[in-house]
Amino acid sequence: MLKNRPLAALFLVLLLSTASPSQTLDKNLHDGLKSISASEAYDVVKTLASPEFAGRLTGHPGYTAAAQWAARKLESWGLKPISGKDRYLQPYPSPYTVIDKAEMTILLPEGKPDAGKAQSFKEMKLIPEKDFLPLLYSDSADRTAETVFAGWGISAPDIGYDDYAGLDVKGKFVICFRGTPDADKKYQYHDEHRTRMKAARDKGALGIIYIYSEIASNPNGDWLEGFTPAMISEKVMDAVLKEVNSTSADLKKSLTTFKRPISFPLLAKIRLAVESRHFPQGVGYNIVAYVEGSDPKLRRECVVIGGHFDHTGEHMGLLFPGADDNGSGSATVMEVGKAFAGLARRPKRSVVIALFGGEELGLQGSTWFVDHVPGPFDKVVGMFNFDMTGEGDGLWGAVSAEPAEFGKAIKEADKSVKVVRGLGVIRGVGVRGSDFAPFFAKGIPSASLGSNGPHLAYHQTGDTIYRINPDIMADAAKVAFLAAYSWADR
Ligand SMILES: [Zn+2]
């Protein structure tokens, strides 16, 4: 899942009416459901989250090895490859960066500034993951520099908002929150990490330093020469803000209440030292397999069951295993594939299993997929996305409002599984979407489901296999199997 996705803001959540009694399923569907195994899904997550695959950063050899492993598994279950040449893998360009080492120290001013004397500082050394992390596309550099606070880090004078107005950031670190003054769509472009980084770089800043309530690994951005962006915790920022008698919470509240820029230079300095390696020629892969439809004409149409396969990698000796995000959704999707592959009677349309690369880098694999629909198919007629199905005991999600029959297929499927707690309507595609977004944007009926959490240790080293509940992944697969079958067999 991408960082800090405020799902609730995007979706209007409607509770399902109490489930009606389980409908009777024919033997074909019953056999499909029976083949979905919670313990097998658990084993898949365990393998994907293992150190061998180095946190599955798209482009990295760890990701590629994991992709090959998943492809072999899908092949062993009898799913077909999408290409004679690349078989189950759909390659696309995917530059990536690995952070080998990073140190960050805040120099807090001691005493009041005095024109006659040099300012003295107290050093506060930050702890990786607890207090700070570089953004995972940082260049290498070791610099100590002055800092400025710049609200949301948005520079958009054309729409009447500029956190940089009157601010000199050349050769300094720009500290800001991630977000926008309000939910107005006009800020959407400026809320992209890439937009914010380039704005700061073009003004001569050394890096953006985001303030996050919790530190989370984040590879969603572009490597920029000489630019070293990072993230600090609100707690660390509170120590910095003592010099102006404020706190992170106060500043954020003022920014959202008044919707006007609040920016000022600080006395505190930052030393940030990063050693990283950038690989501009990286190649990412979607893993794509399918079960051919039974109708000779309709089989060129497909229903996609997808989820992202990637996570944020291994950096500075820290493994980000991504068990819940999104080993779990990957396992759910793979189990659906196995269920379809074993059917005696297949649906009329083809069913495609797609494990996307580059979601954490900004929906890159799914975007590539919709722009390069694999050869065997003319058209995608529906998309079911699974992101973080590993923690909790229920599912919730959202679905395209049109056609109404698409959402009904999920509700109908759930009558046999009884695990969906709420299903909202996808209102639009924001900057914090998941892999349904590129499909939805092309007008393809889409649904996105995840488990009800708590999803603690989000994008942290603690997102391990030990947090995973096998049953919820299998239940998600069962709903997907039944809903996709009915949608593909119309
Ligand atoms: Zn994620």
Sequence-ordered SSE layout with sheet pairings:
Layout: H1 7-10, E1 11-12, H2 27-35, H3 38-48, H4 61-76, E2 80-81, E3 89-93, E4 96-110, E5 120-125, E6 132-134, E7 141-150, E8 155-156, E9 161-162, E10 173-177, H5 188-191, H6 193-202, E11 207-212, E12 230-233, H7 234-240, H8 248-258, E13 263-279, E14 283-291, E15 301-308, E16 314-315, E17 318-319, H9 323-341, E18 350-356, H10 364-371, E19 379-386, E20 395-399, H11 404-417, E21 420-426, H12 437-441, E22 446-451, H13 470-488
Gist of the model:
By secondary structure, this protein is α/β, with parallel strands linked by helices.
Describe the structure using short key phrases.
13 helices; 28% helix; 10-stranded mixed sheet; alpha/beta; binds zinc ion; Glucose Oxidase, domain 1; elongated; 22 strands
